[in-house]
Amino acid sequence: MRETAGVRQWAALEFQHADLGDARRRRRVIAMAAAVARAPGGKISEVFRSAAERQGAYDFVESKHVDAKAMVEA
């Protein structure tokens, strides 16, 4: 459990200032970054196990409202 909390804390520190236009997107990128850090398989299908999680990740990555540059700059 400590590792999970540490990973979540790392993701929050990395992306807390991401300007994604909506606080919900910021929370989503933090959750996704933590999941990827816990299981860095490289593929969405390997990191997100449930169909709902995978669909949410795909929707986020493909969203016209999400700017990769904003995440990098965060």
Can you describe what's shown?
- There is one protein chain.
- The protein has 74 residues and is mostly helical.
- 70% of the residues lie in helices and 0% in strands.
- Helix 1 packs across helix 2 (23-38).
- The longest helix is centred in the middle third of the chain and has 16 residues, at 23-38.
- It is globular.
- The model has no long low-confidence stretch (mean pLDDT 88).
Question: Can I get a quick summary?
Answer:
By secondary structure, the protein is mainly α.
Straight-line N-to-C gap: 26 Å
Largest sheet: none
Radius of gyration, taken over Cα atoms and rounded to an integer in Å = 12 Å
Provide the low-confidence segments as ranges.
none
Helical coverage, percent range: over 70%
**Outline, from the CA principal axes?**
globular
Q: Estimate the strand proportion.
A: under 5%
What structural category do the secondary elements indicate? Answer: mainly alpha
Determine the mean pLDDT: 88
SSE order: HHHHH
Total DSSP helices? 5
Number of DSSP-assigned strands: 0
